[in-house]
Amino acid sequence: MGGIFKLALKLLINDRGKFFALLTGITFAVFLMVMMMSMFSGILLRASSSVENVGAQIWVLDPAVNNVSSSIPMPDYVLDFAKSINGVKHAEPIYFGGAMVKLHDGTYQGVNVIGLDDATLFGRPFLLQGKIEDIFAENGFLVVKDAEYDKLENPEMGTEFEINDHRGRIVGIAQVPQSGLFGVPTLYTTYNRARTYIPSSRFTMSFVLVEPKSAADIPYIQSQIKTLGYEALTLSQFTKKISDFYKFKTGLGMNVLIMTVISFIVGLSISGQTFYSFVIENLDKFGALKAIGAKGRELVMMIMIQSTFTCLLGYGIGVGLATTAMILAKLRMPDYAAQVTYTNLSLAFVLVVIIAIFSSYISIRKVLQIQPFDIFRG
Questions:
Q1: Which of 6, 115, 225, 282 is 20 to 30 A from 274 via CA?
Q2: For the residues of 223-272, what is the DSSP string, one character each?
Q3: Averaged over 353-372, what is the pLDDT?
């Protein structure tokens, strides 16, 4: 077995032109597949960043809501009903809205405003500077220091701005686990201040955040909320609903799928054609091996070793190049949305295995058909 392995690799690497052409095609295909799938994963992660940052176990919302940015305001009795359900530890309202901020240089910048419950401040972010109590001060706002922070001219403690003809003042600089998706800075304030400063409809409560007494109480809470005509989703369920919206109800999912399929076809066609050409040019060597006693299964093993070695090497180089490209992109563009996940790597690996199987198959058929006397007769 060791001799077959060495002979197969020596035969492959000695033909440097074909070897590098084959390796380049697979590397390029893996690079494109990993880049596209990682970008898609990063977008889905940022799409539900607000849900992850707040961290509530149960979100009560209108059934028509499919993402945080398109929340449908709910009447106050939904909050009162949620608080009255057995198994609810506490329930608080939260406000999500958008506004225009006028900066010192006179320019305007759109922001996301999150209003926290005045009594508990449930869902508040981690503070890098300032005290959370200062949010109750007149015109107090917290600013999130993320990739969009510089769009507000890098505000510091005490920086003042104008929001919908109201004066705002930065009393804290916060940090959250995930930045938003659409490149918009985020401000936190109290629930009452948010609905006062930002024009809205008759109802102002975007969601109700519910904390159950135990995990066993969640199904009962969900069933009770459903009788009211609303929906109670756990953190993972709400995140999945947002992901499904971007996957199936926007063009994003289909575009990424098409690009991934194209990358796979490119790798499949290049590797199949190049490897077949490599086998054709080395038919005399395979015929000579068969003439001196090499069995068909040994020749098949040689081809499988060659295709597997090339595909795995191309997979490793492609993943390395894609990871490096994403790191460099994030260094230059902090709001670049991409993440490498085990799912992405596993799917790319499966596709590379398919490429290896296809390349081996079309070559094995040709090698098994060769007869030694054809080689020596030539």
A1: 6
A2: HHHHHTT-EEEEHHHHHHHHHHHHHHSSHHHHHHHHHHHHHHHHHHHHHH
A3: 74
% of the chain exceeding 70 in pLDDT: 94
Distances (CA, A) of 124 to 52, 53, 96, 189: 12, 9, 13, 9
Among candidate residues 222, 340, 317, 358, the one with its CA nearest the CA of residue 28 = 317
Give CA angle at 259 (42, 36), nearest 5°: 25
Q: CB within 8 A of 107, min separation 6: which ones?
A: none
Rg of the chain (C-alpha set): 29
d(Cα 361, Cα 75) in Å, to the nearest integer? 64
Please give the structure tokens belonging to residue 303. 């081809």
Q: For the segment 163-185, what is each residue's pLDDT rounded down to a tens digit?
A: 988 999 999 999 998 887 777 89
Sign of CA dihedral 226, 115, 71, 59: negative
Instruction: Find the mean pLDDT for residues 214-226.
Output: 94
| pLDDT tens digits for range 79-124 | 999 999 999 999 999 999 889 999 888 889 999 999 999 999 999 9
Give per-residue burial for 61-72: e unless 16+ CB within 10 Å, then b.
Answer: bbeebbbbbebe
Q: β-pairing, 108-116 with 231-234?
A: unpaired
Q: What is the mean pLDDT of residues 210-234?
A: 94
Intra-chain end-to-end CA distance of the chain, in Å? 30
